[in-house]
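Work Package 3 (structural annotation) set out to generate three-dimensional models for the target panel prioritized at the project kickoff. During this period the team completed the workflow that converts sequence records into discrete structure tokens, so that structures can be stored uniformly alongside our sequence database. As a representative example, we reproduce one entry of 461 residues exactly as it appears in the project archive.
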Amino acid sequence: MKQLIPLVLCLMLAGIVARSQDAKHVTPALLAELEQSCPPDAKLRSAQHALAQVDGNKIVQNWEKMIAVDPYFSVRLKDQKITDQKGTGRCWMFSGLNIVRPLVATRIGAEDIELSQNYLYFFEKLEKANLFLDGVIATRALPYTDRRVEYLFKQNVQDGQNWLGFIELVNKYGVVPKDVMPETYSSSNSGHVSLVLSLRLKQAGVRIRHATSAQAVASLRMAALKDVYRILAINFGIPPKEFSWRYEKSDKSLSPLSTYTPHKFFTQFVGDALGEYFPLYSIPTLPVGRKYEIDLNRTVSDQPNMYFVNCSLEILKDLTRQSVLDSTAVWFGCDVGQQTNTESGLMTPRLYDFESLYGIDFTLSRAELFETYSSIPTHNMVFTGIDTLGGNVRKWLVENSWGESRGKKGYLIMLDDWFDKYVQVVVIHRKYLPQDILALFKTPSTILPPWDPMVKALTME
């Protein structure tokens, strides 16, 4: 009988463990098992002491990785003055203009030039307001619970766009030098102006939906656009229709004072060069070798929706490598918040070593990051350098738009395996694209709705 007692106890314990593993609720048995799995040993207490007093992200920074990267690149394009988007979601615009700047500087014979982000920001907000009003009018017969209506009212003039949005703006409105329309506090800190614009547009949207005639709808729409223009003029200033400008050349001499319109300036010093660039994405949750289009995602109302070709990561990376090795900068989008120390300017996987602190494996593959909504491209920057050794890429030089105080005087260093995990979009010049990929841009698009989970991944702030 005594011999049966241990056996009975073992069976009872096994039953408790089985029940705790199968339980749908946090039961006393499950709690007991969880407590036994976490003994308060010296390692646990040491971690508790540290995290009670210090930010966990500082504790887990991998010091060996922080000091193991040298600052040199085998190919480095000419450095430009670092820009600063400050408290706005304009990375797509800043990085787009950073692609344009060297072309303008070369053509005017200057050492460097910065183009006005405020000028384009004015028209981006105006165009988005117009698109919102058009969308409200088109859907005014639908209930508020309709997903298109919900999307419109939630996403009217928020910051954020993409490469094609940038192209649409500069093609329509041109560009001006920054000193012609410099930044204001509001253009550098968009919280207030975005809130005011959104409130006025939502008010107009509600009234348009209740209007009883086409004449009333048109009147409400025009009144709203006039108010939007006034709000933008107060916050950003009024964009110039014409301006006189001169600049310092590379030899320190002054150019003659000349008069331009924004569109003339763009045509003369940029021309049709931007039409030669094509957006490629590598979204692991979408089939590759297809062209996609996002409904309701555009900046200018008479232009097409945002589109792209989805391709493998290997193709994305190889075309980027070819471009930078040939001294052509590449606009790209990535999940900048992942394994990045923006103060030191380093982007490398396992920079934050959670595994060592917690004794837990947190690994997710690139596809799993997308499937779990754990990683999407959140920021646009520009590749301006590459470091190779024995034909293999070691790291990438990244021009950012967060000012010179962040990173290495405004630049970031991206390790090649970080690219593998967290870069999702690049814009490549036509001359580097294979014919089969170019041909895909002429094929019909697979339409993605604006509320598709991946759409947020395609509009960077």
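The longest strand covers residues 379-389.
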